[in-house]
Amino acid sequence: MTHAPALPHAPARSARLLLLTAGRAACTIGMLLFLRMDLFAEISLLIAIAVAVAAVMRVLRQPLIIGHIITGLIVGPAVFNLIDSEETLALLSEIGIAILLFTVGLHLSPDIIRKFGRVSLITGVGQVAFTSFFGYFICIMLGIPPAAAVYVAIALAFSSTIIIMKLIADKGDLETLYAKISVGFLLVQDLIVVLLLLAIPMFSAAGSSLSSFGKFMVTGTLLILFVVLASRFFVSKASRFLSQSQEFLFLFAAAWGMGVAALFSMFGFSLESGALIAGVALASLPARHEVSARLTPLRDFFIVMFFILLGAQMHFGDVAALLPAALLLSAFVLFGNPIILMTLMGLMGYRKKTSLQTGFTVAQISEFSLILVALGVTFGHVAPEYLSLVTLVGLLTICGSTYLVLYSDRIYRFLSPYLGLFERSDAHESHPHAKRHPVVLFGCNRIGHDFLATFEESGENFLVVDYDPDIIAELEKRGIATEFGDASDLDFLSSLDFSQAQLVISTIPDPETNILITRAVKAAREDAVVMVLAHRVQDALEHYKQGADYVIMPHFLGGRYAAELVIKLRNDKHKYGTLRERHIKDLLSRLALGHEHPFPASVRL
């Protein structure tokens, strides 16, 4: 009788035991299957885990980059050690890096580089120097030996170009002033760290000399010159041919970006610098936004592999012993680095918001920082525990800076009253925004041709968007602002700035494309007038439902126009003769342009 009360709970205990046993069996079977997995299955498993972690991040409203790094920690040696094909993941991540930096370069025309080169050089060199100086004394205060303190202090000075560019791209700020300056000084930092990575082995060897350094600089100059000349004399002249096919343009852009990155890597330069220069070389092409839009999905997929691999390669050693020093150094990077950069930019006359947003982009350390300290360990200059220390600092600062960059606008609104110290009384800025147009015309064939003529006669400030390279080339010769791109591509539409648009007209006959245009314009500016084309009554009603302000129906408008002519001219033979001559002249002009009136659906073959 003493055991009777326990009987009702026995089934529950049995169920829990059964679930526990099944769970252990599933884990065992999963591990056995994993041991027999091929490369495809391994990558599939990594992506599945990344999706699960990303879902948690979305529910918690956290940045996905942090989720990808956590995925790396889960699948790496720190937890389950599921990665067998590290070399393959490294290759995939390098592809992502190349595409990311290439698309960033597409937003940096040579004019922008000339405009912001000075501030990029001063802030890049200045921030590295000051961070290394103050970081060294903090390391000495923590009891780190002088040689190791030098390595750790310099490691704290470098920021991750890849992480920052991904955050800025996700935020949609690639065209802003702080983004242009950030790209510039991050490139300067990358050049400094590459020189250090080359110089340390060179000067650690017995027969080192400055001749190798000189040869390195000459090689870099020649490589840049080669890319610039190839772009100017080959790519720019072939741009119309390249733009005639979406697939061919995409394939060429991928080959160009990755090829130039590989070329730079072969000569000992960083992959990032080569990919960025490849993008800059194409930044003046009419198809630059189309290229960027086509590469964006590919970039987002491959760059996930970089963050997973970054998380998987983090080894922390004795975390409890390293945590106090890691927290202090992380605080210095998260708050000290932005203050250093804000001070430099304030002295150069930039406003406090730009200084703050730019400062947040240096609030983390780079993957190059880990490589630099690892190199010191290899040569016996640094004890292994300091590599673990820098790794922990890297994780803390990458996570912290992600929030600082993504929420910089909110942070500025809170801190603005206290940031006057970092702004001169005569502060001024020259923003890199492209000229905004109050009128945007999609499609310049047939109906679009009439709008174009009207805008030109009225002196209107307008932009033409078209996907025909011949039309774009002809309009550019006439000095008309153009953008080459496919309006049915959401990524391309998102690259256009509709914030100042007052009137947007689409003469594209595809109803789905016009719905996308309407949504994109209304999302950017709700009070903008949107006029689209439709050939079917049902499509016209759907466009009105989606928010279009007016729908052009050519056949109905043509009939109404002809009826109004009858009322206006009646049977005046002379007036009809004048109208006839004008119409014949217009038709001959359109025939020369290759225009043709579309056949009714009932007589199409």
Automatic annotation (TrEMBL):
Gene Ontology terms describing biological process: potassium ion transport; proton transmembrane transport
Keywords of this entry: Membrane, Transmembrane, Transmembrane helix, Transport
Transmembrane segments: 17-34, 40-57, 64-83, 89-109, 121-144, 150-169, 181-204, 216-235, 247-267, 298-316, 322-347, 359-380, 386-406
Molecular function in Gene Ontology: antiporter activity
Superkingdom of origin organism: Bacteria
InterPro entries named among the record's database cross-references: Cation/H_exchanger_TM, Na+/solute_symporter_sf, NAD(P)-bd_dom_sf, RCK_N
Tagged with keyword Transmembrane: yes
Membrane topology of the entry: Multi-pass membrane protein
Residue ranges of every copy of the RCK N-terminal domain listed in the record: 439-554
Main location, first listed in the record: membrane
Subcellular locations according to the entry: Membrane
Cation/H+ exchanger transmembrane domain location: 48-399
Annotated SUPFAM superfamilies: NAD(P)-binding Rossmann-fold domains
Cellular compartments per GO CC: membrane
PANTHER family named in the record: SODIUM/HYDROGEN EXCHANGER FAMILY/TRKA DOMAIN PROTEIN, SODIUM_GLUTAMATE SYMPORTER
Family: Belongs to the monovalent cation:proton antiporter 2 (CPA2) transporter (TC 2.A.37) family.
Protein's name according to its UniProt entry: Sodium:proton exchanger
Species this chain originates from: Candidatus Kaiserbacteria bacterium CG10_big_fil_rev_8_21_14_0_10_59_10
